[in-house]
Amino acid sequence: MPKPPKIPESVLVVIHTPELDVLLIERADRPALWQSVTGARNYVDEPFAETAAREVGEETGIVVGSRDVPREALIDWHHHIQFEIFAEWRHRYAEGVTVNTEHWFSLQVPRRLEVTLAPREHTAHIWLPYQDAAQQCFSWSNRDAILQLPERVRALNTGRGA
């Protein structure tokens, strides 16, 4: 039975420590392409926070809602962007779909946690200071999200939201 087409609505989750070290993972299908956790909704009305928590668990083994990573650590930035889907990945979507809407989240973890990668999706991980992490990302949207991290964390800490 063939896989159903991917839903062109996804999440980007910037995982970081209080010191703003950011976790990047390397794509298995594209070596040297580093990114934060990303993933599409499994079904049309799946809440984006659920998508984000699920993808974090699947791609890194970090469990949102655990003792070390409480559910409140996952922050919805209430921000989304649209981008053109790379031609080589369009076959995963319904015919004619060329644009994806990406919703941004952050997840603060207490320290550089050990991760368990999904081997079919990712081959390596690295923790870097946020500026260095942004430079390593192949995706402009991922780079922009990481560069916004200090202001988003500052706003959250002063009660102004993400």
From TrEMBL:
GO terms for molecular function: dihydroneopterin triphosphate pyrophosphohydrolase activity. SUPFAM superfamilies: Nudix. Residues 5-150 form the Nudix hydrolase domain. It holds the Pfam family NUDIX. It comes from the Bacteria. Keywords: Hydrolase. This is Dihydroneopterin triphosphate diphosphatase. It comes from Paraburkholderia edwinii.
